[in-house]
């Protein structure tokens, strides 16, 4: 999404970078609460109940968010719309897409609304699993970042309404850098460190006692690592009119992941860990630099072990700053019997400024008034959070890069995530990227027939 447009919508023109979503995707490890109905079987929707009773319509909202994320917006909506009730069904993030595909593949009418991970929207739309929402798009014009709307379209139709976006920061351990006599990075959004300088500083911190020099929040995941290649001039890894041809062997991808390989090979970053473990490596005070999203700050603050600062996400020397972006949106099943009621709820949670603010949780909203409220609330928490807000606003306006919108995205992501892991664990980047390039092209052939 273009941060420049977002900056204009937020009330002032910002000449900076974009903050990139959630699609983050911000880390969403959905925990299933006892108060939420859990999907435990693919046949969950086989009932004859159409969700209506005594003049009240009940909408089933399938999502993969933390318990409590939507409680406030649902309570507010139901109070204003007493004939519509929202029933949540929570599934773990890793099971969401297969659950939705299984149920909608059988035209199960029991799902009314569901979470749509934005890079997967094209695949769902192409399979007929999303109701077009062009009427809601008209309502959203001028109220939601136009690039957030664009990323949720396919073949010029609006197929979901965006809720959130995401961005990336560089967290640093003040004590470890001071001990190594390494100057703290600037918090100026327009003055990011280079990855090369981060590497050198991380090595100095290790020499002075830090266990780890650098780690990523979502290690080995396309969401967070695509910007490495983008910063080095490699693009998203796909080319062609429909982005159905692999392009992960160009000079930019090779440079970025030869460096990625080296930081693990040289012990700057630790091997043998998964994304669920990485935040604790910084929160416990053992790591000098942590590349992650704004959502990580809550866990670091709760732990209270590490005194940290924030800086803009790094870029390669001579390259352009690039940050992950996009996040979650909400779609409507074409098999729902309550589409009008579902649209009413989506309109409230994404277009209405009050509803969008209530839906925010710890995420960055794309509704322009809710976005301004988010930044103001963040800034009011203190100087460190004021710096974070400035970095986020700058990044969203200048540097965020969306994941490619293509029906083959899932094939690309799964292939590259395995390649990233292999490169991190010792395989030479040029060889593994060449293998991934071939694998992607074979996987994408089915979409060109």
TrEMBL record:
It comes from the Bacteria. Pfam families: SBP_bac_1 (PF01547). SUPFAM superfamilies: Periplasmic binding protein-like II. GO terms for biological process: maltodextrin transmembrane transport; maltose transport. CDD domains: PBP2_TMBP_like (cd13585). Keywords: Signal, Transport. GO terms for molecular function: maltose binding. GO terms for cellular component: ATP-binding cassette (ABC) transporter complex, substrate-binding subunit-containing. Belongs to the bacterial solute-binding protein 1 family. This is Carbohydrate ABC transporter substrate-binding protein, CUT1 family.
């Amino acid at each position: 999404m273009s941060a420049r447009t977002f900056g204009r919508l937020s009330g002032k023109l910002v000449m900076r970078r974009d903050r990139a979503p959630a699609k983050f995707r911000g880390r969403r490890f959905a925990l299933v609460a006892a108060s939420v109905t859990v999907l435990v079987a693919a046949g969950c929707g086989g009932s004859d109940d159409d969700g209506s009773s005594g003049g009240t319509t009940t909408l089933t909202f399938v999502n993969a968010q933390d318990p409590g994320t939507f409680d406030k917006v649902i309570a507010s909506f139901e109070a204003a719309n007493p004939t519509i009730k929202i029933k949540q069904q929570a599934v773990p993030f890793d099971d969401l897409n297969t659950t939705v595909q299984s149920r909608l593949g059988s035209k199960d009418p029991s799902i009314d609304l569901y979470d749509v991970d934005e890079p997967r929207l094209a695949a769902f739309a192409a399979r007929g699993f999303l109701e077009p929402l062009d009427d809601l798009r008209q309502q959203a014009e001028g109220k939601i970042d136009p690039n957030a709307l664009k990323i949720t379209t396919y073949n010029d139709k609006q197929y979901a309404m965006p809720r959130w976006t995401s961005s990336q920061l560089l967290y640093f351990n003040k004590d470890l850098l001071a001990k190594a006599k390494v100057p703290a990075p600037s918090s100026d959004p327009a003055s990011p460190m280079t990855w090369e300088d981060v590497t050198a500083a991380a090595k100095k911190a290790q020499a002075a006692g830090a266990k780890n020099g650098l780690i990523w929040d979502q290690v080995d995941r396309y969401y967070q690592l695509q910007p490495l290649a983008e910063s080095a001039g490699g693009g998203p890894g796909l080319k062609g009119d429909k982005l159905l041809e692999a392009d992960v062997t160009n000079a930019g991808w090779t440079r970025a992941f030869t460096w990625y390989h080296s930081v693990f090979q040289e012990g700057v970053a630790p091997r043998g860990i998964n994304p669920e473990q990485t935040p604790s490596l910084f929160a416990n005070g053992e790591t000098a630099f942590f590349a992650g999203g704004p959502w990580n700050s809550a866990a670091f603050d709760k732990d209270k072990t590490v005194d940290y600062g924030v800086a803009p996400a790094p870029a390669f020397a001579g390259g352009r700053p690039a940050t992950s972006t996009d996040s979650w949106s909400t779609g409507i099943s074409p098999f729902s019997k309550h589409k009008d009621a579902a649209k009413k709820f989506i309109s409230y949670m994404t277009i209405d400024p009050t509803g969008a603010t209530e839906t925010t949780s710890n995420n960055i909203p794309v509704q322009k008034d809710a976005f301004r409220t988010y930044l103001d609330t963040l800034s009011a928490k203190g100087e460190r959070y004021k710096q974070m807000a400035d970095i986020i606003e700058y990044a969203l306006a200048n540097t965020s890069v969306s994941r490619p919108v293509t029906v083959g995205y899932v094939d690309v992501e799964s292939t590259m995530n395995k390649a990233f892991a292999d490169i991190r664990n010792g395989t030479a980047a040029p060889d593994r990227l060449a293998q991934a390039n071939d694998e992607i092209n074979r996987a994408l052939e089915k979409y060109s027939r």
